[in-house]
Amino acid sequence: MAKHILIVDDSKTVRNLVAFIMKKEGFKVTAAEDGLDGLEKLYSEQKIDLIISDINMPRMDGITFIKTVREQDAYRDIPIVVLSTEGQENDIQKGLSIGANLYLVKPAQPEMMVKNIKMLLG
């Protein structure tokens, strides 16, 4: 069965591009437009195997979203990849310190993103 990826990004263009890349690799994809929408989708879907999240989003940002996911036992072990335009060292360190498994800076190379996601999924 295909692994299920949740993409959380307020940019429709980014969501569509990342979804296209992931679907091409055989993944099932669910998209959300911000952290609140991401939590709703996470709670309502059967099983999410990996999350790709932006940091800067309205309503609920990626930092709050990731912290919320990590605080819940049922979702604590889901690999999380941050995909953000924020590429300063302190941004990356903050993302990793709150529970992201990987931090990629936009625009990430599709091959590199896929390779890292497959590695995180085992």
TrEMBL record:
Residues modified to 4-aspartylphosphate: 54
Claim: Phosphoprotein is one of the keywords in the record? yes
Recorded hits in SMART domains, A to Z, give: REC
Ranges where the Response regulatory domain occurs:
4-121
Q: Which InterPro entries does the entry mention?
A: Bact_response_regulator, CheY-like_superfamily, Sig_transdc_resp-reg_receiver
Q: Does the keyword Metal-binding apply?
A: no
Q: Which GO terms describe its biological process?
A: phosphorelay signal transduction system
Q: Which UniProt keywords apply?
A: Phosphoprotein
Name of the protein in its database record:
Response regulator
Q: Taxonomy-wise, where does this protein's organism fall, top ranks first?
A: Bacteria, Pseudomonadati, Thermodesulfobacteriota, Desulfovibrionia, Desulfovibrionales
